[in-house]
Specification:
heterodimer, A: 314 residues, alpha/beta, eight-stranded parallel beta sheet, two-stranded antiparallel ribbon, 10 strands, B: 243 residues, Rossmann fold, three-stranded mixed beta sheet, 12 strands
């Protein structure tokens, strides 16, 4: 198992500064928080009450947003950064890290979240994109960023823009795990291919992946991404969460799967336990008892491609 | 390592284990890293490099087989919750009270403390100290700095991530490091070690080496006590014979 890869990533730290205690907003500090979240579950919440349930159930962080993805999908309209009061209310309610989503390319939403002292910014395809060509330059912020990907090229483009954590996208709000699995497998397939490549083949691979050669070299050497990688988009049961862990996720984001289930608190706690003991089927069977109905969900195969969220931002 | 990770990490462990050399002066100690949540893999890697046999601890039987334990960085509320949920909290507390060396980093330091204002679950409470969670602010206030640590010749590059600070220590607790603003960030209490920062995400193994030597001392102390006990039984026995 290779560790500490994040320390070696040569990236600018435009946002880093000094205060009375030391140097802040460095690459190591940004990637380091993601390392502390590993083996954990990050839960979508829309209110302080939900945030408290998540913390009580053992979430390592909460993601503050206005509507869970299942509702965004159902109700339509423009999905934006959560209201400032909502974020502040959630920050006050819990002691675990609070993350929040900004629209792809909407660097002013990110500036506002940074000013609120948010612990992580998710530049997310779940919200309506603000820029159909460019992502946010994430190096100039104090807060670290997490971004979605479907494959290795997309992951490395986001890291080159300054993302300190990656999540595979899956298809948010569906409760269908198929896209999460597809994206995780594609990512690892890309990493394995690089490991099998001769050094002189990397420049061509960099062109094909549309990603910086330096990052390809690093991934080849490490045998994994240089930052922490969680799974997102479709986890609805403890079994789904353990599946993603066995497929190589460092941890799991759960969106609609918790608060769209019959028993949010029990489901949240069961998913937390399943991520810790993802390799132990006896524990997984035990924690899967008595959870009531999972979110009903919507099969991705029944959603037209143009309505799928994962295609946003490349 | 992408799939079926249990198998590949087990293989790593074997290779490493076979690569170790054991001498009288340098007995191989078995250190567990609590692997409920957090950056336990980083500690595992660092301890192996520093020369220990290492395994991940998630269950009671795994806990009972180790000579020392690292509680890693992570979310203290999550780890505390899982310790209780999997029935590890009380057995761990009992083992610490009977002398198990433990090193807590960040979340681990919080769990070792006797007094943690605002933690919604009682910590292990094995070190007499008050520790304040998120003492420096949110993530945007996380920082790295050079730190002088008692017992280390050169300064240590310390990374603080949503870190706690130790506000007060009880009798017998040795302060190992303070920030420039005087806040306590590392202590030692016998064979218990607590640091508010994360040596496991740097390349500096000195504190891991220090902890291994603490565990080694505790193991040889334990063996000395055992042989002392055997000896005294033998002496008593021969005395009985003489009578």
């Amino acid at each position: 198992m290779t560790n500490n890869g994040s320390n070696e990533t040569p990236l600018p730290n435009d946002a880093s500064g000094k205060d009375s205690t030391g140097e802040t907003a460095t690459w190591r500090v940004k990637t380091g928080l993601a390392q502390m979240l590993k083996g954990g579950v990050i839960m979508d919440v829309t209110t302080a009450a939900e945030a408290e349930i998540a913390e009580e159930a053992g979430a390592v962080a909460v993601m503050a947003l206005e509507r869970v993805p299942a509702d965004i999908r159902k109700e339509g309209g423009v999905a934006r950064m959560s209201a400032v009061e909502k974020i502040e209310e959630i920050q006050k309610a819990v002691t675990i890290p609070v993350m929040a989503k900004a629209r792809i390319g909407h660097f002013v939403e990110a500036q506002i979240l940074d000013a609120l002292g948010i612990d992580y910014i998710d530049e997310s395809e779940v919200l309506t994109p603000a820029d159909d060509r460019n992502h946010i330059d994430k190096t100039v912020f104090r807060a670290p960023f997490v971004c979605g990907c479907r494959n290795l090229g997309e992951a490395l483009r986001r890291i080159s823009e300054g993302a300190a954590m990656i999540r595979t996208k899956g298809e948010a709000g569906t409760g269908d795990i198929v896209e999460a699995v597809r994206h995780m497998r594609q990512l690892w397939d890309g990493i394995r291919s690089l490991q099998n490549m001769a050094t002189d083949e990397l420049p061509t691979a960099a062109k094909e992946l549309q990603a910086p050669l330096e990052l390809l070299r690093e991934v080849k050497e490490l045998g994994r991404l240089p930052v922490v990688n969680f799974s997102a988009g479709g986890v609805a049961t403890p079994a789904d969460a353990a599946l993603m862990m066995q497929l190589g996720a460092d941890g799991v984001f759960v969106g609609s799967g918790i608060f769209k289930s019959d028993r949010p608190s029990a489901v949240a706690e069961a998913i937390v336990k399943a991520v810790t003991h993802y390799q132990d089927p006896i524990v997984l069977a035990e924690v899967s008892r008595g959870l009531g109905a999972a979110m009903r969900g919507e099969a991705v195969a029944s959603i037209p491609v143009e309505e799928q969220l994962a295609g946003r931002g490349n | 390592m992408h799939q079926f990770r249990s198998k590949s990490s087990w293989l790593d462990e074997e290779t490493n284990f076979q690569g170790m050399t054991v001498t009288d002066h340098n007995p191989l100690v078995h250190i567990g890293v609590l692997a409920l949540q957090g950056d336990f893999q980083e500690h595992v890697a660092m301890l192996r490099v520093a020369g220990a046999e290492v395994s991940e601890v998630r269950t009671l039987s795994q806990l009972s087989s180790v000579d020392g334990l690292v509680i890693p960085g992570g979310e203290s509320t999550t780890i505390a919750r899982l310790l209780v949920a999997f029935g590890l909290m009380e057995p761990l507390r009992e083992r610490i009270e009977s002398g198990l060396p433990v090193w807590g980093t960040c979340a681990g330091a919080i769990l070792l403390a006797s007094d943690v204002p605002g933690l919604d679950r009682p910590p292990l409470g094995c070190v007499a100290m008050t520790i304040e969670r998120n003492a420096f602010g949110t993530q945007v206030d996380s920082f790295e700095t050079e730190l002088a640590i008692a017992g280390l010749e050169e300064v240590f590059h310390a990374v603080f991530i949503r870190a706690p600070a130790i506000k007060d220590v009880g009798k017998g607790v040795e302060v190992l490091a303070r920030l420039e603003n005087d806040q306590i960030v590392a202590i030692r209490d016998g064979s218990l070690l607590a640091t508010c920062f994360h040596p496991e995400i740097t390349e500096d193994p000195r504190l891991h080496e220090l902890f291994i030597s603490i565990v080694r001392d505790a193991v040889s102390q334990g063996q000395a006590n055992k042989s002392h006990l055997l000896e005294s039984q033998f002496v008593t026995g021969s005395g009985d014979n003489r009578d």
